[in-house]
Design goal:
The complex is a heterodimer of chains A (467) and B (92).
Chain A lengths: L6 H15 L3 E12 L5 E6 L4 E6 L1 H4 L11 E11 L4 E11 L2 H18 L16 E6 L4 H13 L4 E6 L7 H14 L5 E6 L13 H9 L4 E5 L7 H5 L2 E2 L3 H45 L2 H4 L2 H43 L1 H33 L2 H32 L2 H5 L5 E4 L17 E5 L4 E5 L6
Parallel strand pairs in A: 3-5, 6-7, 6-8, 8-9, 9-10
Antiparallel strand pairs in A: 1-2, 1-4, 2-3, 4-5, 11-12, 12-13
Helix pairs in contact in A: 4-8, 5-6
Chain B lengths: L8 H17 L4 H23 L4 E5 L17 E3 L11
Antiparallel strand pairs in B: 1-2
Classes of the chains: A alpha/beta (467), B mainly alpha (92).
């Protein structure tokens, strides 16, 4: 059953199918056969090595061109397929034309970067500090890419527990920038995370392009939540990296940076605890030393010293007391003794004994005295003895007188001068007056002197005097 | 110190810094320093616990075809567990 269609019907069917199927396409190629109509619309052919397609850029869309279009330009067209029935041809209606080619993209990139920089979006002064303790880490990336896996790997390795919320987005191609921007905005709107990691893996400049888009930059700039960017490889850079609060060279590094504060916190807590412990220990030791100092005080280490003086005093008092007691006792004893003696003395028996003794003594001495008296009387009446005594007395007295007389006679004999003359001595007399000459001074030459010898006298004349 | 839990990690952290500063000033009596030490010790334990014993939770926000967030009855974004094997299909 073959239905026969009219050309119009077929064309209408083709148009319906094509236009709905290719309502939003992106295609890249080289511009050729460029024609600008006076209406301001551009008509050209986009081609690559083996195919070509007609394209129309209406005046309204052409206004957005960064520079005039020319043949040979490598471009990306975004738009829809349109079937032009009158000519039976299809073409792409260009809504957006971007110049491809590294140079072009880089120029755009640098221009945007310079502009945002002058706006102050890259200023370090507006960079937000990362939270010390991110309870929840938000991630804006593709759920199927390697970025989320790298982040989960790092977090899982470092922490047994963490909270991560992934906001899945396209990271390249049509709408990627919109999704990334709105994901950031969503995290902020619902306050879903304490820190965000926004990124994708490495790729060409075109692949990374979404992160160079201004709307992504704006979303990052306006985010209240601190953002770590991790776009591409270490050598790549994107506008997002400049606007982000911290740029991580890789997604793994982003995960480490997001949680580095937590590691620091752990160390901080450990250190704090040590420090506190140290402070308290030092303080305790200080006080301990003080207490030990007190302990060593003589009053405390030997409490006896406190009561020692008192003990001594007690001892002194005790010995004083003892002494006075003893003395008292002694005194009493002595008194008692004396009284006992007195009592003994006044005892009648003793008195009698004493009187008896006295009586016997008296009678004894009386007897002795009588005996003595009688013997003395006896002696006096013994005459014989008396006569003998008188004879002895006279004999003794006669002997004594006799002895004395003889002594006197011999003495008289010794002093008779004639006695001296017998021993050779002579006496010289003056002729004239018979005086004894005792000195030469009494003599003169021719004086006549007389010399008395023992048996006669001689007359002498002085012939010389020698003095 | 009463063993009530601090209102937040940040509050606990701030209080800890406060205590450290006081302790280091050397103007605290032995008795007070022992009290402060005890408090700080509890704060550190609490904070460390928060750091190490967080529940492991990995979520992915649920979006519709137009990349709009799905919301629950309270208007909060819906999420579901995200695992290494159960990645939500997503057309790039």
């Amino acid at each position: 059953m073959e239905e026969i269609l009219s050309v119009s019907a077929l064309t209408a069917e083709i148009k319906k199918n094509l236009e709905s199927r290719f309502c939003a396409v992106q295609v890249k190629g080289e511009v050729s056969n460029l024609k600008e109509q006076t209406s301001g619309h551009f008509y050209f052919t986009l081609k690559d090595a083996s195919s070509q397609i007609s394209a129309v850029l209406f005046r309204g869309n052409a206004r957005d061109l960064s520079r005039p279009l020319k043949n040979g330009d490598q471009v990306i067209l975004r738009g829809e397929i349109n079937v032009y029935a009158p000519r039976g041809s299809y073409q792409i209606v260009v809504r957006k034309l971007d110049y491809l080619g590294m140079g072009e993209l880089l120029m755009q990139l640098h221009a945007r970067k310079a502009r945002l920089q002058t706006l102050g979006w890259f200023d370090s002064s507006r960079k937000k500090p990362l939270p010390k303790f991110p309870r929840t880490i938000g991630v804006v990336t593709s759920p199927t890419g390697s970025v989320i896996q790298d982040i989960l790997h790092i977090l899982g390795r470092r922490f047994s527990g963490f909270h991560l919320i992934l906001n899945p987005v396209k990271v390249q191609g049509e709408g990627a920038a919109d999704e990334i921007a709105s994901a950031i905005e969503q995290f902020n709107r619902y306050k879903l995370a304490d820190v965000l990691i926004v990124g994708r893996g490495g790729g060409s400049l075109e692949d990374l392009w979404a992160f160079n888009e201004e709307k992504v930059a704006a979303a990052i700039y306006h985010s209240q939540i601190p953002i770590i960017s991790a776009v591409g490889h270490e050598t790549d850079f994107s506008i997002a990296d400049f606007v982000a609060d911290v740029r991580a060279p890789t997604p793994s590094a982003a995960a480490e940076i997001a949680t580095s504060q937590m590691d620091q916190l752990r160390q901080y807590f450990a250190k704090s605890r040590d420090r506190l412990r140290g402070t308290v220990l030092t303080l305790l030791q200080h006080h301990k030393k003080e207490i030990e100092g007190f302990k060593r005080h003589p009053h405390l280490c030997t409490p006896l010293t406190l009561i020692e003086p008192h003990l001594q005093r007690v001892d002194d008092l005790r010995s004083d007391l003892n002494l006075s007691l003893m003395r008292n006792l002694q005194e009493k004893k002595l008194q008692l003794f004396a009284l006992q003696k007195q009592m003994i003395a006044v005892k009648p028996e003793n008195q009698i004994l004493l009187l008896k003794q006295k009586l016997s003594t008296l009678s004894r001495s009386l007897a002795a005295s009588i005996l003595q008296q009688s013997s003395a009387r006896k002696k006096i009446f013994d005459t014989h003895t008396l006569r003998k005594k008188i004879d002895q007395f006279f004999a003794e007295a006669l002997g004594q007188k006799n002895q004395k007389l003889q002594q006197l006679a011999s003495h008289l004999k010794s002093i008779d001068p004639k006695n001296l003359l017998t021993k050779g001595y002579c006496i010289l007399f003056q002729e004239k007056n018979d005086s004894v000459i005792l000195s030469t001074s009494e003599l003169k030459e021719l004086d006549k002197v007389r010399l008395q010898l023992q048996d006669g006298k001689a007359l002498l004349t002085v012939t010389g005097i020698e003095k | 110190m009463t063993t009530q839990t601090p209102p937040s990690f940040e509050a606990a952290y701030a209080r800890l810094e406060d205590i450290l500063e006081k302790m280091n000033s050397g103007k605290v009596s032995l008795e007070d320093s022992l009290k402060l030490y005890e408090e700080a010790d509890q704060l550190i334990s609490w904070c460390s616990k928060r750091l190490s014993q967080a529940e492991k939770k990995i979520e992915i926000l649920v979006k519709n075809r137009d990349a709009e967030l799905q919301q629950d009855a309270q208007g909060r974004p819906l999420s579901q567990p995200f695992g290494t094997t159960s990645s939500a299909p997503f057309a790039e």
